[in-house]
Amino acid sequence: MTTEPLELPAFLPRRGDTPAPAADKDAYTTFLEEKVKVAPRAGFDVDPAEINPALKPHIKVAVQWGLAGGRRALFSRFGTQKTTWHLEMMRLTARHTRAPTLITLPLGARLSFFKDAEKWFTGKHAVKLNFIREDKDLDREAINLTNVESVREGKIDPRRFGGTTFDEGDILRNMNTKTFWTYAERAKEVAYRHVGTATPDPRDYSELLAFAGYLDIMDVGQARTRFFKRNSERADELTIHPHKEQEFWLWVASWALFIQKPSDVDKSFSDEGYDLPPLDIRWHEVPTDHRDAGAEADGQMRLLKDSAAGVQGSAKEKRDSLPARIAKMQEIRAEAPKAHRILWHDLEAERKAIEKAVPSAVTVYGSQPLDERETALVDFAEGRIQELAGKPMMIGSGPNFQFHCWWAVFVGIGWKFKDIIQAVHRLQRYGQTFKGFPRKKPKAVRLDFIFTEAEREVVRTLQDNWRRYEEQAARMSALIREYGLTQLAVQSVLTRTMEVNRVEVKGQAFTCVHNDCVDELRRMPENTVDFIMTSIPFSTQYEYTPSYRDFGHTDDDEHFFRQMGFLSPELLRVLKPGRVFAVHCKDRIVEGSRSGLGFQTVAPFGARTLMHYMAHGFAYLGTKTIVTDVVRENNQTYRLGWTEQCKDGTRMGFGLPEYLHLFRKPQSDRSRGYADEPVVKTKEDYTRARWQLDAAGFGRSKGNRFLTPSELAALPYKGIFQKWREFSLAQTYDFEHHVACAEALEGAKKLPSDFALIPAHSWHPDVLTDVTRMRSLNTIQAAKGKEKHLCPLPFDIVDRAIAQYTQPGELVLDPFGGLMTVPYCAILQKRRGHGIELNPDYFRDGVAHCRAAEEKAATPSLFDLLNEEAATSEAAE
Q1: Is 863 within a domain?
Q2: Do 463 and 350 belong to one domain?
Q3: Is 625 within a domain?
Q4: Confidence of residue 359 (pLDDT cuts 50, 70, 90)
Q5: Where is the stretch described as Disordered (predicted)?
Q6: What would the 3-class secondary structure string for 50-94 be?
């Protein structure tokens, strides 16, 4: 019988496919330098003389910059002539492509475009505007305008146009909406596409990432892992790495132009007339009836109502307080009965109460015909309607109301700062006029916020967000002023993060090095390491440093394994012949936005890792499967959500385990299977009984009776997990009985939602379900108030591997040291540890852990002292 050679999949690297020779260091440097990326340039150049001379100087520059980029965003403050930017961008794009163009508008913004076209575009620069609701209405000779709804419902296909812009692009900020997916997917085929908005929320990173994804600047999933650390408890919360913040904003500045005043673009441009009206903000608290405060989850009755306690509590507070809030609104209106005002609200019940209290007010709501809604907005903008009532989420974007109105009353407040700030800036805008005459000094915009006593925390959060919003907006303008609009300046700053200063710290039993692991491995002599164990970066899942040398700072799996191709031959070179290399890894979740499928899938990163190392000369020995907590995983990804599976069970896969792949460097003498320096065990220490259990591929049950669901539910909370494991491993598994036990715990309110209390345990020796994840260096880090590692490696995994594949005194290497877990465990087992780490903070803390391990290993225990004393006494006798 002949054995066919292993055929590797086409996407995997072959030995020799990846540049890895140790002598060719320039290839690695070139690879790293190619990582430095700014927004791609995908547009065309236009002669400044072709740009409409009537436009403001800062808009002319923004037009030239946007057309050259091809796919750009303009974040221009209210009243800085953003509308004219849209019009000129599409006028010149139509000339270049000889194809029709499209501007997509929010409800109520059409009037501003027609007015600006008439005012600023005359003579040979005149433009024809055509408002359409269906493709059949398209005019190839005009700039076509349409509402978001027409695109979302498929009546207009953006692919029919040579260029498109999206006004008030914050509509695209929610990537879970039909609007985003419909527009983004169809517009992907449009060569020139742009976004403009007056209120990008600099605190809402997801919104900026949505714009980047829509403009094809960077995949959303890639951007998330490049700049942000994810909340291990909540999948939708992003926190920017402190060391990545500067790089993130420089990256944004390479494709988005922030303008608060003309001088932001060029300090020679005049800011005369660009004075925002001041805000006169008044907060009105109405009392809360605390008699129906409700109860906590544990049944404890609340003393006071708290709208921050949850969605249901907030909604109930809104309903209960509506009469008091309407009364306060009437009191405010009575101060100036004839003033023009907007009455902002969030709930349908609030709208109906306003209509009843103020019959003369015109209300705008979702079930109205589009034409009727738009007519009401235009009439209010032009002063023909005195009071308008509407929801910020519906009409808070687009319309300009500053010409006849300076007063807004928020009948209620909510957590959505974005909606509130948009609503505020319908009035607080540049170019404020009243009765057709410009004012030398803008009139203050009055804002009255009505809230309840139970909503004080909502108010505090709103005020904090407002402050941060202003700070971040100012920061972005400062970046433009500092670096200008040339990407070369931004790129030069980012390139500086390539440098790393090597630091080495040695102890009696360890060596820790702060350096790029590729460069460091090249310094080490061959065939000197007894065992290599590491948890490799999970491709683009996380970035640990701002350095482009970081393996997590890669575009995709292909890019990641290209960089790994420089390291893998060095690992093989330094490992002693016949010795073992253990790799900890895990498969990865692929977001629906990244795959284009609309649902999450799994990338077999573990399999690709396995094949990669086989392709680089390592012999595969096998894989240990490490079971993880499926409940915790779902809290991180929402991939396995209970509610979503009840809606459609076809979307659910399985929880992802971790893997420990074992490889071996072939020994020098291929006629014998032993390592050049074998790991020798004595039969006294490694018994036949232990060998049989280690080698067995299955286990037997003791046959004990299993706990009944009622018995399990009656156990104390802290004892349930241990008892479950003991009995789970002691009898034949019964899935329905497992479900019944879990349901009994749920009925007793003992089944937590944030971790798996009674998971499925395995008796198979290659499936590890007893790894204690609390036993890691992150526990020590947390106790000291220091930064925790993003992906801590549990001690249990490391300890077992070191004990099995090494002998005392041997050298254990981890090229991705992190907090130095592997050297730490090696020291405690009387081995020598060697760790390499690029993150300076992890390196510093890791050195401290290794020193602590040395002290611990050198300190004799009470039993050591007793044994020593006994041995001394025996020798004396």
Answers
A1: no
A2: yes
A3: yes
A4: very high
A5: 1-21
A6: HCCCCCCHHHHHHHHHHHHHCEEEEEECCCCCHHHHHHHHHHHHH
724 lies in some domain: no
What CATH code is carried by the domain that includes residue 695? 3.40.50.150
β-strands 503-506, 510-514: how paired?
antiparallel
Q: Quickly list H helices, 687-776.
A: 688-695, 709-714, 717-728, 735-747
**98/61 same-domain check:** yes
**Do residues 184 and 300 both lie within one domain?**
no
Distance between CA atoms of residues 125 and 119, nearest Å? 11
Question: Which two structure tokens, joined as six digits, stand for 355?
Answer: 């209509």
- Angle formed at CA 151 by CA 146 and CA 152, multiple of 5 degrees: 135
Q: Which amino acid is at 668?
A: S
The CATH number of residue 339's host domain is 3.40.50.300
Task: List Cα–Cα distances, 572 to 379, 521, 529, 693, in angstroms.
Answer: 75, 10, 10, 31
- Can you tell me the distance from the alpha carbon of 596 to that of 864, in angstroms, rounded to the nearest whole number? 62
Q: CB of 623 within 8 A of CB of 659? A: yes
Considering only CA atoms, which of 3, 6, 15, 7 is closest in space to residue 612? 15
CATH label of the domain that carries residue 136: 3.40.50.10810
pLDDT at 330: 94
Range of the domain at 211: 53-217+255-264
Q: Enter the tokens of residue 501.
A: 């200063």
C-alpha distances in Å from residue 852, one per residue of 774, 783, 827, 857: 19, 15, 10, 9
Residue 318's alpha-carbon distances to 325, 347, 356, 357, 363, in angstroms, are: 9, 9, 17, 17, 20
Listed residues 449, 483, 517: the one ending a domain: 483
The model's pLDDT over 665-687, given as tens digits with 9 standing for 90+, comes to 999 988 888 989 998 878 777 66
- Whole-number Å distance between alpha carbons of 365 and 367: 6
Please state the separation of Cα 276 from the chain's center in Å. 34
DSSP state of 301: B
Q: Where are the beta strands (DSSP E) in 335-453?
A: 341-344, 362-363, 387-390, 407-410, 433-434, 437-438, 445-452
Assess contact for 698 and 732: CB atoms under 8 A.
no
Count of residues for the chain?
877
| pLDDT tens digits, 262-316 | 888 888 888 887 777 889 999 999 988 755 655 555 555 554 555 544 445 566 7
**Are residue 472 and residue 507 in the same domain, yes or no?**
no
Query: Two tokens at 334?
Result: 């009575």
Predicted confidence (pLDDT) per residue in 131-169, tens digit:
999 989 999 999 999 987 788 778 888 888 999 998 876
Are 89 and 126 members of one domain? yes
Residue 154, phi-psi category: left (phi > 0), alpha (psi -120 to 50), beta (remainder) = left
User: What is the rounded distance in angstroms from the CA atom of residue 665 to the CA atom of residue 569?
Assistant: 11
Residues 477 and 594 in one domain: no
- The model's pLDDT over 84-94, given as tens digits with 9 standing for 90+, comes to 999 999 999 99
Considering its fold, how many domains does the chain have in total? Answer: 3
Q: Where are the alpha helices (H) located in 98-193, listed in sequence order?
A: 110-120, 148-152, 178-187
Is 224 part of any domain? no
Pair 198, 83: CB distance under 8 Å: no
Are both 518 and 477 inside the same structural domain? Answer: no
Most confident of 97-111, 335-349, 691-705: 335-349
Three-state secondary structure call for residue 445: strand
Q: Are residues 207 and 161 in the same domain?
A: yes
3-state secondary structure of 611: helix
Q: Output phi, psi for 733, to 5 deg.
A: -75, 140
Alpha-carbon torsion, ordered 217, 222, 226, 229, to 10 deg: 130
